[in-house]
């Protein structure tokens, strides 16, 4: 049978890693200015400024007498900057965005930056390895690292699962559907009779 | 009727053995991937896009039709059988569906969802076939300025009406519009914002952005807050629909369809609001009010029908105007463009057989779903139990496949990761993701039409409000921008699904923090 949906089954603190305390009385949800949200807003503002400044560098062909390739970037830059200013105002007043809900997300869990970093690094490594060792081997390694960082146990099973999946997918897509995907020396040799 | 004979022609094309096989393949793949937790309809379509790369357009879209409806159906199975919140359009289905499953009526909940999806999908797809030619007739005389106004309305509506926070929606939209600017300007051939990287001069591929924001972003976000411990899947137990269940379900199915299709078809579409409205309506109209909050079948039948009807409704602006109003529609538009087909008022005449085959395939796929899903419920339950480390590692594997297959360039994968990190940050801080995808795909279309309009008027901005059509549409856009802010100031935030379930009605409540005592019911 299923467990009760009560949120207080969780023993974790409702405050996330980034919930820095503000000078306001505590309300039921998190309060205070979120540094992460502020950073997002600042980045948005930087994007707006970049759009406005770099739009001036877009070359305009001499012949055009109506609006050219700069107009829309200016428009978007203005909208982005205005949005960043308005959002910054709200965030500074303690407004927080509702974090996304998903089936496998524990809304009360603190953010695990280690897992995010590990998975991002694994994905980057895979991107750089593809043209060296081939897609199946590169994604097998990524698969195993990601599975480990999400709590898979054992050494052999994640590697085996990733390897089998990668080879099967490679055969289906490359041999069956004709998608271009480097297989690596061994696999391409082994399947050259297809 | 012209539409009817066209549709029959579509059936003739779709009903060949090979095409039926691809429709079946699409339906099964779509449902299987859609069932997986953490994967919504948009991610299903984005991840399965590479499967269709090497097929010829007609076959690809037949398969796509199955994937689209299969993904929608799979999502509702997940939300009924998993006791955790999922994507926004199936939240309302989950409210009562969870409770039904918990009290041993899971099979009935799945059955009313399946049959409701079939009824709503069939009616709404037939309506799509009837309405599309009419809209095309109206849209033939549309000016570039009118089109720009429509795009602005779609932007504003997607950014402000759908999300919980209008400003964050606008922020997300702005990011998407920026990503759409990167590349070579179509009209003058000038490079914009490419920062000197040659690969960027072709623009950023929509598949990379969609897979990055949805698949990679979602995986990183789930990894950051993974729900530990065993997975709780509820059994699809109990009897299928009894006669009493059926009697209580058919009206909500029809009402849900009536709400879902028109609201989905509006340029301000999406499935979230119709499911919300449908739940509220069923709660008000039910003869068994005591069951709401304990697993009322009407609360599953109505929203699920509304969800599927809206999914068909979204195809009306997409096929007739080239206007995507949901993230899923934006990805389908990208698939069209991948084949060099630009949806718009001329699509129905230039690619007539393709469109009608697509619509016929939607009907066929819908029927296949009904036949497949009642007996296959047990298989889907098994899929829900996949250990999460392997599930998300697998999602990343397929993300890498889909993205690399576009250009065979590892740089795309690095870009995918950067956009994935952006998607993670957006989820983490409550920025909705859908506006970014729509901004990316619709931004260049809006710009082209704006510049065409201004070229005709030789730079006079007055051309933008020259026709009554553009005046009304732009006024609606301004309304959509201002109304949420005003409502928030006057009435407080919108009721959450849980409050709706508790019977507090669909009204806006007092400001945040104030006691929810007043402003209830009517």
TrEMBL record, chain A:
Transmembrane spans: 38-59, 71-92, 137-156, 162-187
Domain DUF1468: 41-182
Keyword entries, A-Z: Membrane, Transmembrane, Transmembrane helix
InterPro entries for the chain: DUF1468
Isomerase in keyword set: no
Superkingdom of the organism of origin: Bacteria
Residue ranges, annotated region (Disordered): 1-32
Protein name: Putative tricarboxylic transport membrane protein
Organism from which the protein derives: Geodermatophilus aquaeductus
From TrEMBL, chain B:
Pfam family, one: TctA
Keywords linked to the UniProt accession: Membrane, Transmembrane, Transmembrane helix
Transmembrane segments: 20-49, 61-82, 107-135, 147-167, 206-224, 314-336, 356-377, 389-407, 468-487
Region annotated Disordered, chain positions: 500-522
Residues in DUF112 domain copies: 20-438
Domain of life: Bacteria
Keyword Membrane included in the entry's annotation: yes
UniProt keyword Cell wall biogenesis/degradation present: no
Record-given protein name: Putative tricarboxylic transport membrane protein
């Amino acid at each position: 049978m299923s467990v009760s949906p009560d949120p207080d089954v969780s023993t974790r603190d409702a405050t996330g890693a980034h919930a820095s305390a503000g000078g306001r009385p505590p309300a039921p949800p998190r309060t205070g200015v979120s540094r992460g949200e502020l950073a997002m807003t600042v980045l948005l503002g930087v994007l707006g400024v970049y759009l406005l400044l770099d739009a001036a560098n877009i070359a305009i062909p001499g012949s055009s007498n109506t609006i050219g390739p700069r107009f829309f970037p200016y428009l978007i830059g203005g909208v982005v900057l205005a949005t960043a200013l308005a959002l910054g105002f709200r965030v500074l007043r303690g407004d927080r965005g509702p974090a996304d809900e998903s089936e496998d997300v524990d809304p009360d869990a603190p953010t695990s930056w280690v897992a995010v970093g590990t998975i991002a690094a694994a994905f980057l490594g895979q991107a750089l390895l593809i043209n060296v060792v081939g897609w199946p081997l590169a994604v097998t390694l990524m698969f195993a690292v990601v599975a480990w960082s999400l709590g898979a146990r054992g050494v052999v099973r994640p590697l085996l699962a990733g390897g089998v999946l990668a080879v099967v997918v490679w055969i289906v897509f490359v041999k069956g559907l004709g998608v271009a995907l480097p297989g690596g020396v061994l696999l391409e040799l082994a399947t050259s009779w297809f | 009727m012209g539409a009817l004979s066209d549709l029959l022609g579509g059936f003739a094309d779709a009903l060949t053995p090979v095409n039926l096989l691809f429709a079946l393949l699409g339906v099964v793949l779509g449902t299987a991937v859609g069932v997986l937790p953490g994967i919504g309809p948009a991610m299903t379509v984005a991840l399965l896009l590479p499967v269709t790369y090497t097929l010829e357009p007609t076959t690809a879209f037949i398969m796509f039709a199955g994937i689209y409806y299969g993904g929608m159906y799979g999502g509702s199975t997940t939300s009924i059988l998993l006791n955790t919140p999922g994507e926004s359009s199936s939240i309302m289905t989950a409210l009562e569906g969870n409770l039904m499953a918990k009290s041993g009526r899971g099979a009935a909940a799945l059955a009313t969802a399946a049959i409701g999806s079939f009824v709503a999908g069939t009616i709404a797809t037939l309506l799509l076939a009837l309405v599309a030619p009419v809209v095309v007739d109206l849209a033939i005389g549309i000016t570039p300025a009118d089109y720009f106004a429509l795009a602005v309305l779609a932007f504003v509506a997607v950014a402000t009406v759908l999300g919980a926070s209008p400003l964050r929606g606008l922020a997300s939209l702005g990011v998407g519009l920026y990503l759409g600017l990167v590349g070579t300007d179509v009209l003058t051939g000038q490079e914009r914002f490419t920062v000197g990287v040659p690969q960027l001069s072709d623009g950023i591929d929509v598949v990379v952005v969609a897979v990055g924001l949805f698949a990679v972003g979602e995986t990183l976000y789930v990894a950051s807050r993974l729900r530990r411990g065993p997975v709780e899947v509820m059994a699809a137990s109990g009897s299928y629909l009894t006669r009493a269940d059926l009697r209580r379900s058919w009206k909500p199915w029809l009402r849900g369809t009536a709400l879902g299709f028109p609201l989905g078809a509006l340029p301000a579409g999406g499935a979230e609001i119709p499911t919300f409205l449908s739940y509220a309506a069923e709660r008000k109209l039910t003869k068994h009010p005591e069951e709401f909050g304990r697993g009322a079948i009407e609360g599953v039948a109505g929203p699920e029908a509304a969800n599927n009807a809206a999914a068909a409704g979204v195809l009306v602006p997409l096929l007739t105007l080239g206007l995507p109003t949901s993230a899923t529609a934006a990805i389908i538009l990208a698939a069209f463009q991948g084949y060099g087909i630009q949806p718009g008022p001329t699509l129905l005449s230039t690619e007539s057989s393709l469109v009608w085959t697509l619509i016929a395939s939607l009907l066929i796929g819908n029927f296949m779903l009904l036949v497949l899903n009642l007996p296959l419920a047990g298989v889907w339950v098994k899929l829900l139990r996949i250990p999460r480390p392997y599930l998300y590692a697998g999602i990343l594997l397929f993300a890498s496949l889909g993205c690399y297959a576009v250009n065979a360039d590892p740089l795309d994968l690095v870009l995918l990761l950067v956009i994935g990190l952006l998607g993670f940050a957006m989820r983490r801080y409550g920025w909705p993701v859908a506006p970014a995808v729509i901004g990316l795909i619709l931004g260049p279309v809006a710009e082209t039409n704006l510049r065409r309009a201004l070229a005709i008027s030789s730079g006079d901005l007055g051309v933008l409000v020259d026709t009554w059509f553009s005046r009304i549409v732009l006024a609606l856009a301004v309304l959509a921008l201002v109304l949420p802010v005003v409502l928030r100031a006057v009435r407080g935030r919108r009721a959450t699904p849980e409050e709706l379930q508790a019977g507090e009605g669909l009204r806006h409540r007092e400001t945040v923090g104030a006691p929810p005592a007043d402003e209830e019911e009517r």
